[in-house]
TrEMBL record:
Residue stretches making up the Methyltransferase type domain: 15-110
Name under which the protein is recorded: Methyltransferase type 11 domain-containing protein
GO molecular function, one term: S-adenosylmethionine-dependent methyltransferase activity
UniProt-listed InterPro entries: Methyltransf_11, Methyltransf_Superfamily, SAM-dependent_MTases_sf
Family matches, as CDD domains: AdoMet_MTases (cd02440)
Length: 203
């Protein structure tokens, strides 16, 4: 995820949108970057602050609608499996508009989301898993340019679970990950599966 930031300078602020307990924020700070973490959950933000990442990390609670940041104030935005929790397309487009507003010209958004071949809504976990095309339409409507789209991981590939449960040796995992990405490039989303997709967006 962090490699998609490209040549972004270490002094450039990065917004960790939907930072949760601060795992991505901690990884950003470890590379010497300055990070602003935003989340809607006070409990998760408390966990992020407990990491004590120092002056290079600032965490704040936001209301799920507007970001209390100046326009064009961050150089990059990272978000991991957050956008699916905005159930309504209009709500998501409005939030993407806010992200576009706070991103500087030439900035980059890296979003990893679960996608399906057919959109599904699961109220039990408050998720709207959209299609790749559905996400791309919403990104474009918010003013972003889609620079790169990659399938990173399938959710139900049996070989991956064979390694996870000890049926195959763990040393095979890197090769299986590479095979997943190849399948993603050739086939796309499998009919019975969902997958993690990385969208790299420019402004």
């Amino acid at each position: 995820m962090l490699e998609a930031l490209g040549n972004l300078g270490l002094d450039s602020p990065v917004l960790d949108f939907g930072c949760g307990t601060g795992g991505i924020s901690a990884a950003l700070v470890a590379t010497g970057r300055k990070v602003i973490g935003a989340d809607i959950s006070p409990g998760l933000l408390a966990c992020a602050r407990d990491r004590q990442l120092g002056d290079d990390a600032l965490f704040f609670l936001f209301d799920g609608r507007g970001l209390p940041l100046a326009s064009a104030s961050v150089d990059a935005v990272l978000t991991y499996v957050v956008l699916n929790h905005l159930m309504d397309d209009h709500e998501l487009q409005a939030m993407l508009g806010e992200i576009h507003r706070v991103l500087r010209p030439g900035g980059r958004v890296v979003a990893i989301e679960q996608v399906r071949r057919k959109a599904t809504i699961d109220p039990a976990v408050w998720q709207h898993r959209r299609t790749r095309a559905g996400f791309e339409q919403l990104f474009a409507a918010a003013g972003f340019q889609i620079e790169q789209v990659d399938i990173l991981r399938y959710g139900r590939i049996p070989t991956i679970h064979a390694v996870r449960f000890g049926l195959w040796p763990e040393r095979m995992f890197p090769a299986l990950r590479s095979a997943e990405r190849l399948i993603g490039r050739l086939v796309g989303v499998l009919p019975w599966d969902y997958c993690d997709v990385r969208f790299v967006l420019g402004k």
